[in-house]
Amino acid sequence: MNGPQSALRRRSGIGLTSSRARQRLAEQLQRRGIRSQEVLEQIRRAPRHLFIDEALERYAYQDNALPIGAGQTISQPYVVALMTQALLMDEDGRMRRPGKVLEVGSGSGYQTAILAPLVRRLFAIERIRSLLESARPLLRELGCENVRLRHGDGAQGWPGQAPFDGILVAAAAAAVPETLLNQLAPGGRLVMPVGVPSRQELLRIERSDDGEVRETLAPVAFVPLLPGQE
Ligand code: SAH
Question: What is the total count of domains within the chain?
């Protein structure tokens, strides 16, 4: 089906892409251990079906990664929620509202759309231009006005905007790039998958005046952090 009606339906979502499907996804993530009501609210709100190819949209609200072209994937909703919660929630359950956050590997823009309403300003970098060019108009349409997107190598960070109160990296490396750690403000947090392809852990680093605290949060499977841009 083509034409304006299908465009409208695609936007609001029906059946497998409806708000009920998003509600069920949020419930599922809560059962898996996502505690932040603010994060769950964003999962209920964000139209994930718009971030993927129309041919796959019936799978949009299943808790799986999906291909988005250029050999990349839209992250699994549970992992998006877990990373967002790890970045923003304190031990006592309270949510931080960081001033400036850097996202490396924005891909489809879904994680960007989940994170943007929970922070003041979000700076997102993606190394594949075609993905960035699809994400940009969609994020604008969804009203994410506090987001700046840049095409480039996120391992270099965004020196002109550093330091950041939070850094979220959606691609894995053997170790956290020193350049990114250096762009973290005191009290700030970095969340990133670290390891080899068959064995990665989600790592959280919190920087303090006299050092840093490192915690591993969960085993994960991410695409690699690659140098350069395309
Ligand atoms: N969270 C996003 C994408 C996850 S896939 C989503 O849900 O859609 C990881 C993304 O990181 C891919 O789009 C990949 O191109 C990007 N990436 C890998 N290395 C990068 C780098 N050095 N700088 C910026 N982006 C990078």
Answer: 1
